[in-house]
Task: inverse folding
């Protein structure tokens, strides 16, 4: 990952050299020493090489700082016949980020010797040719450069000829055969000798070709070109078969002897592969498109030969004119495909170079970012640029960017190229989880078994990855909540809330506690919410009889005067239910009675009242069973048994009291106290009745 800022860039270019075809691992230079760093510092700053082309030919040892050969480099293959062959690269250092331009010059070795394409050459020369007449020979080819290239030509015999070594405009050398003595066909019709081409290597390499000169009769005529030098221009990137020029030669002979055939003398492999000539018309056309950036000038030797084999020569110089035919090229030298969203402005995202193979104004380039993006381009050195952030980024708003870098040249019409870089933002734990609700209310019916699910908490985090992984936990109990915290649990992963034990509404009706949602980032961020649990009442309690109590005897019942009026209150059945709501709505009804028509019970009051006057046939002792029923689901009930005795006077009341069953004395102390109270009430009632009478 590239660091936050570019601390410095050096405009100087480090230059090194290495012989071509050096073995893999060959030492070139010590980069650390040139940068003023130790090997440890170079390793700590993660130094690396960024090649200027598609292939990596050099390698940097981070521990020692040595620059060594990674792949063998052939100068002729990489640079063809250019005088200077450079392998460019950049040295990138991090912490802080620095870039250093460097280049390695490939020095030529004499790994190629001169080569004649034709080992035997036949020249036809008139015996009337004057001394100092010059004749062009086919050039030998040598792809090496400098002193290792072809340097001079030699001749084996100097009886009639000597040889000159000439230099072309591309610095290539060719041979001119010069006539030294006049030829006499009668004395010697043919002259044979050899020409040797020698390079300047150590040791020198050479090649020899045989020259066969045929002396022709004086009466023959030699073709003559209209011009000895043709200068023409073609546009850069001209297509194949584009016309270049038409050369013209004439011959005074008639018939077949005056017919001229045009051909290209093989003076260079490059010229042979680039141009072709119509042997009849002399029109020269391109065999392939020309490129100004590769070759600016072509020098072509044209030969015109008549029917008797006599020939003449001329030169054609083809100048290639540069046009804006090369689109700028964006070369990414370093790219961080991921970037922290917390990166400050001016953080380096990518380093890239812009190259244009054109020359002059056509090669002037500039870069831009189309549209509105939180990035900018900072020029570095030469054609190097840095893509940096221009403002703070937020992954929650935009998770990734497709940054388009557009480069255009300075020509007209403008040529431009675009390159898109995909940049993904790395999440920083800056957002705390958020609960869907501030207060969660969950309802639980009492007596539910342990493990019953109450509901689920839900919290979300806008971060991603582990920063968005939410876990849940119980917080402290809120003020006023029950002291025990073992009522419910929260699943850490799902947020599911479950009850840990049965709850009784009559003991705990509601409680609240705090729940917490935390993410998995560093630092850990959390959110809090309130969980309010309401226990819902269930009809799990039957009505409880308060009067008469279950322990009291039915026989001890109530004393009712026979003369009491209709509606007389005989007794009141009192029951309570500890449940709530409709579960405590009680109703009373007569379940069983000796004489149902004599008494009734109030539906909601539980009061037992007299419904008619007592008849002579009515038995004095009666037993009533009152059913108390609640309105809950499932319905629950209880019964109370009342014993009622009809009396005529107070004395009879005392008699009835005295005739009470003996078993009554064996009741529990609480029941005995209640019976004693009843006796006092009856005695008092009898006394008052007597007083009224």
Result:
């Amino acid at each position: 990952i590239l660091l936050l800022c570019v601390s410095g860039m050096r405009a100087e270019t480090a230059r090194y050299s290495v012989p071509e075809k050096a073995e893999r691992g060959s030492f070139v230079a010590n980069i650390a020493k040139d940068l003023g760093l130790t090997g440890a510092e170079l390793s700590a700053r993660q130094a690396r090489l960024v090649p200027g082309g598609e292939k990596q030919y050099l390698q940097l040892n981070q521990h020692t700082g040595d620059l060594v050969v990674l792949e063998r480099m052939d100068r002729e293959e990489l640079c063809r016949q250019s005088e200077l062959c450079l392998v460019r690269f950049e040295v990138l250092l991090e912490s802080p980020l620095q870039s250093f331009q460097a280049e390695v010059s490939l020095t030529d070795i004499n790994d190629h010797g001169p080569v004649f394409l034709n080992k035997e050459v036949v020249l036809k020369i008139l015996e009337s040719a004057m001394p100092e007449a010059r004749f062009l020979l086919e050039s030998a080819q040598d792809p090496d450069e400098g002193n290792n290239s072809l340097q001079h030509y030699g001749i084996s015999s100097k009886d009639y000829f000597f040889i000159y070594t000439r230099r072309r405009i591309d610095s290539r050398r060719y041979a001119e055969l010069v006539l030294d003595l006049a030829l006499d066909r009668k004395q010697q019709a043919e002259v044979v000798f050899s020409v040797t081409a020698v390079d300047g290597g150590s040791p020198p390499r050479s090649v020899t070709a045989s020259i066969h000169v045929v002396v022709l009769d004086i009466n023959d005529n030699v073709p003559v070109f209209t011009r000895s030098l043709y200068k023409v221009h073609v546009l850069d990137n001209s297509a194949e078969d584009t016309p270049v020029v038409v050369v013209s030669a004439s011959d005074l002979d008639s018939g077949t002897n005056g017919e001229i055939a045009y051909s290209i003398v093989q003076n260079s492999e490059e010229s042979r592969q680039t141009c072709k000539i119509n042997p009849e018309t002399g029109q020269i056309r391109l065999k392939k498109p020309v490129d100004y950036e590769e070759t600016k000038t072509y020098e072509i030797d044209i030969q015109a030969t008549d029917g008797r084999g006599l020939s003449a020569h001329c030169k054609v110089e083809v100048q290639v004119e540069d046009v804006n035919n090369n689109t700028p090229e964006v070369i990414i030298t370093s790219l961080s495909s991921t970037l922290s969203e917390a990166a400050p402005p001016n953080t380096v995202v990518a380093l890239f170079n812009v190259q244009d193979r054109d020359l002059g104004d056509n090669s002037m380039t500039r870069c831009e970012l189309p549209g509105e993006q939180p990035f900018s381009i900072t020029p570095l050195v030469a054609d190097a640029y840095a893509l940096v952030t221009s403002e703070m980024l937020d992954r929650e708003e935009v998770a990734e960017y497709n940054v388009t870098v557009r480069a255009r040249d300075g020509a007209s019409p403008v040529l431009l190229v675009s390159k898109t870089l995909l940049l993904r933002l790395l999440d920083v734990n800056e957002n705390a989880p958020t609960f869907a609700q501030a207060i969660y209310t969950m309802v639980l019916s009492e007596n539910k078994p342990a493990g019953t699910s109450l509901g689920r908490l839900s919290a979300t985090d806008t971060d991603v990855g582990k920063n968005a992984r939410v876990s849940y936990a119980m917080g402290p109990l809120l003020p006023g909540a029950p002291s025990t915290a073992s009522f419910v649990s929260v699943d850490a992963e799902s947020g599911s809330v479950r009850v840990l034990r049965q709850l009784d509404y009559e003991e705990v009706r509601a409680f609240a506690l705090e729940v917490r949602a935390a993410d998995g980032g560093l630092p850990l961020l959390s959110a809090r919410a309130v969980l309010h649990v309401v226990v819902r009442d269930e009809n799990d309690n039957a009505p409880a009889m308060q009067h008469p109590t279950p322990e009291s005897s039915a026989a001890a019942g109530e004393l009712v005067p026979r003369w009491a009026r209709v509606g007389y209150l005989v007794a009141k059945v009192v029951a309570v239910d500890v449940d709530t709501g409709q579960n405590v709505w009680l109703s009373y009804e007569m379940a069983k009675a000796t004489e149902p028509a004599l008494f009734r019970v109030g539906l909601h009051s539980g009061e037992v009242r007299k419904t008619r006057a007592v008849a002579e046939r009515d038995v004095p002792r009666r037993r009533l069973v009152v059913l108390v029923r609640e309105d809950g689901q499932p319905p629950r009930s209880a019964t109370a048994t009342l014993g009622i005795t009809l009396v005529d006077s107070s004395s009879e009341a005392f008699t009835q009291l005295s005739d009470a069953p003996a078993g009554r004395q064996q009741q529990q102390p609480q029941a005995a106290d209640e019976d004693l109270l009843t006796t006092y009430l009856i005695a008092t009632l009898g006394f008052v009745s007597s007083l009224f009478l």
Confidence is low (pLDDT under 50) at residues 1-11, 660-671. The helical segments are 31-35, 39-44, 75-79, 269-274, 650-658, 669-692.
